[in-house]
Amino acid sequence: MNSSLRDAERSSGAAPLIPEGLDAILVLLRHGQTQFIVEKRFQGQMEAPLTRLGERQAELAGERLAHPHAAPPLPIPDTPPFAIVHSPLGRALRTAELVAGAMDAAGRATPPLRPDAGFLEIAQGEWEGLTDTEIKARFGESLAAWRRWPTRFHAPGGESLEQVRARVETSLAVILAELADGTPRGTLDRHQVLGYADTAHESPRWSLIVGHGGVFRVAVCALLGLPAAHFWNFDFGLAAISVVEIRAGRAVLRAVNLDEHLGREDGAVSAESPLERSQSGAL
Where are the domains of the chain? Predict the structure, then answer.
């Protein structure tokens, strides 16, 4: 491909961190419910163990990923994941362990789990471990600013979105390079509209990332080539499945917050109110 055509490809919506021509899928899975969430505390990079419900949510997510083509189907190949990468924090590690265990039990072989500090939750500094009420009383102005202008303000002693994006992009680039290694390049000269099957297109590799709501907001902005000001335009539910498809180097958001697998008989879906969490600004 000549340089002018390559430049044109990059201007077609492909983020620079994505290898040229890559066909692949990234599945983002947020950890299950934690004790801090039950107590309405900001977590950040503090350790907060999964509750019993959180562990069940992780198991259900694993069972769903083991049968991606069961109704309603997920936009994921019916193959084992190429890699399972997780935040080193205990809630993400435990979620990844339970997901892998459920997939293995269903006959879906999984690769070894791999921690990656690039996917740690956003450090929330002096807010970590405090409730929303406590933070409002002590840091009301900075909390309000964070909710409105996340690129300009962050928790005292915490990370800026610029710092987070740097580490997230580094880790994403490693995963994407692995997915691209040894695979043929895809092309944009195929159907780009859902409903038009392309039978000649083989199932791409896919990798699973188990992490956190805040860091996933940053990751999606990076993959879609969006500025960090769009941080609050995305949200990720507990143990919900989100899918980013890479088509010939261009990221396409295929699914966000799929949680039908959690069911409602045990309160798994209603355990956390998305409206309450988005209004609190908690991570």
Answer: 3-280
Residue 1 has pLDDT above 50, yes or no: no
Q: Which residues pair with 159 in a beta bridge?
A: none
Class of 3-280 in CATH: alpha beta
Residue-wise pLDDT for 99-158, tens only, equals 999 999 999 999 999 999 999 999 999 999 999 999 999 999 999 999 999 999 999 999
Q: SS3 sequence, 178-193? A: HHHCCCCCCCCCCCCC
Strand 241-247 and strand 83-86: the pairing is unpaired
pLDDT recorded at residue 5 = 46
Catalytic residue among 31, 154, 212, 261: 31
Q: Which amino acid is at 67?
A: H
Residue 159 reports pLDDT greater than 90: yes
Residue 121 appears among annotated catalytic residues: yes
* Annotated catalytic residue, options 55, 59, 86, 121: 121
Q: Which residues pair with 24 in a beta bridge?
A: 205, 246
CA dihedral for 123, 128, 134, 138, sign (positive or negative) = negative
Q: Provide the strand spans (E) within the chain.
A: 24-30, 83-86, 113-115, 205-211, 241-247, 250-258
Residue-wise pLDDT tens digits, 219-259: 999 999 999 999 999 999 999 999 999 999 999 999 999 99
Query: What is the three-class DSSP state of 207?
Result: strand
205-211 vs 83-86, strand pairing mode: parallel
Smallest CA-to-CA distance from 127 within 106, 153, 105 is with: 153
